[in-house]
Design brief:
Elements (H helix, E strand, L loop, with lengths): L2 H17 L3 E10 L2 E9 L6 H16 L10 E5 L10 H6 L4 E6 L4 E9 L3 E6 L8 E6 L3 E6 L8 H8 L1
Parallel strand pairs: 2-3
Antiparallel strand pairs: 1-2, 4-5, 4-8, 5-6, 6-7
Length: about 170
């Protein structure tokens, strides 16, 4: 897909997605043989439930049907959310990942796995989990020191309500 088509699709779809109270995160067109798939990824600070995804999908489908943005030929429209192990690229992604465990690729090399505690304009405060009985340590990461960041899935983490109940 050419950059111009991607930009045209984003310009066309972003106002519709915003009107539904969501952020347009990604627009991607894939060709598999003769079939084309338009993937649209949406999200919000509160997350996007199935009803919101269905509503925005209908709105996008109607808009695409009335324009020639996808050109001639059939295509499939897929609308979804970023997923559990999303990559953090924008400031709002870091805000939405507060209290989540994240794997950071550092700009100077190396990796760090830590929990995001707070997000500021210039960086983030994280908590590095303690190893072998040691207490967690706090650390500040400037955005320019982060090459890549991806949320990690945690299967056995207690939520805050469970932790507070145990402490009482």
């Amino acid at each position: 897909m050419s950059t111009t088509q991607s930009e045209r699709l984003r310009e066309l779809l972003e106002p519709l997605v915003s009107s539904q109270g969501l952020d347009l995160e990604e627009v991607e067109v894939d060709s598999v043989g003769r079939k084309r798939v338009l993937r649209v990824v949406v999200d919000s600070d509160e997350g996007a439930d199935l009803d919101a995804i269905a509503d925005v999908s209908r709105a996008l489908s109607a808009k695409l049907d009335e324009t020639d943005a996808m050109g001639e030929g059939e295509y499939t429209l897929e609308v979804g959310t970023p997923g559990a192990e999303r990559e953090l690229k924008e400031h709002r992604h870091y805000v939405r990942a507060t209290d989540r465990l994240v794997k950071f690729q550092l700009a100077e090399g190396g990796e760090l796995v830590a929990r995001i505690l707070a997000v500021e304009d210039d960086g983030i405060d994280v908590e590095v989990p303690g190893v072998k009985g040691r207490k967690p340590t706090a650390k500040r990461l400037a955005f320019e020191h982060i090459a890549k960041a991806r949320v990690q899935v945690e299967f056995n983490r207690k939520n805050k309500n469970e932790e507070n109940a145990e402490e009482a």
